[in-house]
Amino acid sequence: MTRRSAVGGWLIGLALLLVALAMARDALDRWVDATVLPLTLAETSVEMRDREGRLLRAYTVEDGLWRLAPTLATVDRGYLGMLIRYEDKRFHRHRGVDPLALLRAAGQAVWQGRTVSGGSTLTMQVARSLEDGSTGRWAGKLRQMRVALALERRLSKDEILGLYLTHAPFGGNLEGIRAASLAWFGKEPARLSAAQSALLVALPQAPETRRPDRNQDHARAARKRVLERMARQAVLPRDAAEVASRAELPSRMEPFPQLAAHLGDRLRAGAPDLGRHDLTLDAALQAALEQLVAESVHRAGSKLSAALVVADHRSGEILASVGSAAYGATGGRQGFVDMTRALRSPGSTLKPLVYGLAFDQGRAHPETLIRDAPVQFGRYTPRNFDGRFRGDLRIREALQLSLNIPVVKLTQEIGPARVMAALDRAGVVAKLPGGRPGLAVALGGLGVSLHDLVQLYAALAQGGQGPRLHATRGETGKTPTRVMSDVAAWQVGDILAGMVPPPGAPPRALAYKTGTSYGHRDAWAIGYDGRHVIGVWIGRADGTPVPGAFGGDLAAPVLFQAFGRLKHGFDPLPPPPPATLIAGTADLPLPLQRFRPRDAQFTDAAESPKLVFPPDGAVLAATGGAVTVKLRGGVGPYLVMANGKPVLTGQRRDEFEVSGLGPGYSTLTLIDRNGRSDRVTVRLD
């Protein structure tokens, strides 16, 4: 063979080799391109985030897994650097498979007679996680390589790293770096120590055998290997690695945040396709108030529940929402019931609305006198909570004492339908037990929710026209509708600010009202300062009575404590609007000095009822505790009271006998049909 023919043969062989390599490359390309990739958009936990982006609550995905979607920008850079240097230092240079790592792994296996390292790249580990495939069998390894090569062609390096951070197993039902960091360290992975980063690098290689809550020795040894390699590669200083290797390991998984759980459930149910809900809540405030509610109910009784809502009445943003004292609790507390939305009787908490409407219509003023005496509207006879009557007093005092008869008189004058219309304008959804509203609406004879009561008081706090409450950031509600004038709203707030606070609480810091529903089923306290409005409900979720429960005793202290947990404490209440009439009773216009219904029957003073016997101050002989009474004037029927308690009703005669009086002083009061009265004090010896 000549030299020329030999060279020609070599060139032909080289050409054939190149053609073969090209064909192999093309075949490999076709093989990779034909790869059917597993789904890369796996389900991640639905998250509720607070106003600062902090996690309030997350929900597990299929099979009860915690898998929270991360972003590279929110993961500690030190951890990412340690992960790549330990698992795949040529990650940014290879195309899914690292031939050098495979050769190294094969050489170590031959030299030591066992598998020392698998040679898998991070991309191959992602492929295994997506398919839940095998790591050791050659068929499984080949499949991982094929999927890894295909992933690298279709995704960027950051996207592949993001898939690893989402799907890597970290023990138990934890997948992904965020779930792992929250469970093992109780925090997001934005700032991790060297010890924490090393443990999180080591865990995915053997997530069950290295779980620190089950095998601290294996976890410590695996973490130490990571730290030693980082020290050899100068990623960490040697002394820093030594210190990190001695750091304490977590001994248990931390529970995932479960703040504002009832609100989260409701929002998730309302938008099931939304993966992240950005809320107006403040996570720190929410946690503090959940603890406050739990402690308050724990002291009050084993079957009690409680709820609390905090809002900024200037913006309408809900800052905290506590639906029960213990979410998910069974038994008496029934913690699964969201009591911020349950319809309950509001007790006396609607009285400020009635007074405000009366002020707005010019029917009354805070210094107007009103008579607290027995009265009957058809078959409806309202009574005060304590069964007593105070006679003439200012409307300011009537509201602060939460008397029933004066507010029912005003409701009769305004009309129950107008009260219901005002509730509707305020955004309150009220449920009437019957068809048409009656006078009892002023005393809590309807069903409303805590959320809606806070909405009503937000309107009062904002001068009669408050924003709609909302919990989702960026939400735009309806344009606020005016409920009453700014003057009337301020007058109501000024009266409520004069309420006596619970022991130890500052005076005139809040405009607040308490309420107790019929049968002691609900204890309420709603109040506001210059910026915030808070509502508190305490009772039993099943609606059974709580003997001895009063809003002033149970709910009011919690209300003031809740305000004390706000970041800036109490904000001052606003000054009166310029048009406000501030005057004493005697200086008011004559129609405002004393409340009289529009249809009141006016008669001369001579026709007013007069007790002519016994005279005032008389000393009488006790004859079985009975006293003969004579009267003149007035319009029957008459009501007769002895020492503030009714003893005769429907009396029409001008001479009758009052019995049952004991020795000593007694006050007899006579009231006619038009509310005019006379009284005398006598002594029985």
From TrEMBL:
<dbReference type="InterPro" id="IPR009647">
    <property type="entry name" value="PBP_C"/>
</dbReference>
<keyword id="KW-0378">Hydrolase</keyword>
<comment type="pathway">
    <text>Cell wall biogenesis; peptidoglycan biosynthesis.</text>
</comment>
<dbReference type="InterPro" id="IPR011815">
    <property type="entry name" value="PBP_1c"/>
</dbReference>
<keyword id="KW-0121">Carboxypeptidase</keyword>
<keyword id="KW-0328">Glycosyltransferase</keyword>
<dbReference type="InterPro" id="IPR050396">
    <property type="entry name" value="Glycosyltr_51/Transpeptidase"/>
</dbReference>
<dbReference type="InterPro" id="IPR036950">
    <property type="entry name" value="PBP_transglycosylase"/>
</dbReference>
<dbReference type="GO" id="GO:0004180">
    <property type="term" value="F:carboxypeptidase activity"/>
</dbReference>
<dbReference type="Pfam" id="PF00912">
    <property type="entry name" value="Transgly"/>
</dbReference>
<dbReference type="GO" id="GO:0009252">
    <property type="term" value="P:peptidoglycan biosynthetic process"/>
</dbReference>
<keyword id="KW-0511">Multifunctional enzyme</keyword>
<comment type="similarity">
    <text>In the N-terminal section; belongs to the glycosyltransferase 51 family.</text>
</comment>
<dbReference type="GO" id="GO:0008658">
    <property type="term" value="F:penicillin binding"/>
</dbReference>
<dbReference type="GO" id="GO:0030288">
    <property type="term" value="C:outer membrane-bounded periplasmic space"/>
</dbReference>
<feature type="domain" description="Penicillin-binding C-terminal">
    <location>
        <begin position="600"/>
        <end position="682"/>
    </location>
</feature>
<dbReference type="InterPro" id="IPR012338">
    <property type="entry name" value="Beta-lactam/transpept-like"/>
</dbReference>
<dbReference type="InterPro" id="IPR001264">
    <property type="entry name" value="Glyco_trans_51"/>
</dbReference>
<feature type="domain" description="Glycosyl transferase family 51">
    <location>
        <begin position="66"/>
        <end position="230"/>
    </location>
</feature>
<dbReference type="GO" id="GO:0008955">
    <property type="term" value="F:peptidoglycan glycosyltransferase activity"/>
</dbReference>
<dbReference type="InterPro" id="IPR001460">
    <property type="entry name" value="PCN-bd_Tpept"/>
</dbReference>
<dbReference type="InterPro" id="IPR023346">
    <property type="entry name" value="Lysozyme-like_dom_sf"/>
</dbReference>
<comment type="similarity">
    <text>In the C-terminal section; belongs to the transpeptidase family.</text>
</comment>
<feature type="domain" description="Penicillin-binding protein transpeptidase">
    <location>
        <begin position="307"/>
        <end position="531"/>
    </location>
</feature>
<protein>
    <recommendedName>
        <fullName>peptidoglycan glycosyltransferase</fullName>
        <ecNumber>2.4.99.28</ecNumber>
    </recommendedName>
</protein>
<dbReference type="Pfam" id="PF06832">
    <property type="entry name" value="BiPBP_C"/>
</dbReference>
<dbReference type="Pfam" id="PF00905">
    <property type="entry name" value="Transpeptidase"/>
</dbReference>
<keyword id="KW-0645">Protease</keyword>
<dbReference type="GO" id="GO:0006508">
    <property type="term" value="P:proteolysis"/>
</dbReference>
<keyword id="KW-0808">Transferase</keyword>
